[in-house]
Design goal:
mainly alpha
Amino acid sequence: MRFKYGGLDDSRIVVEPNIEQALDRGLALTPDGGELVVLPTYTAMLALQRLVAARGHAKPYWERAA
């Protein structure tokens, strides 16, 4: 929705309701050495953080907070 309201062409918007598959797609489309930027809702951010930590790409939040 953020992209649509921001004026991005509808043909460039892909909705992937499965957060794990969305992450996989985003990573696949990110060039080597590039940065994937994600704009999740608060609820999706919590699920995404757990998924990224479970895959070993980041520390769980309680280890990063200190």
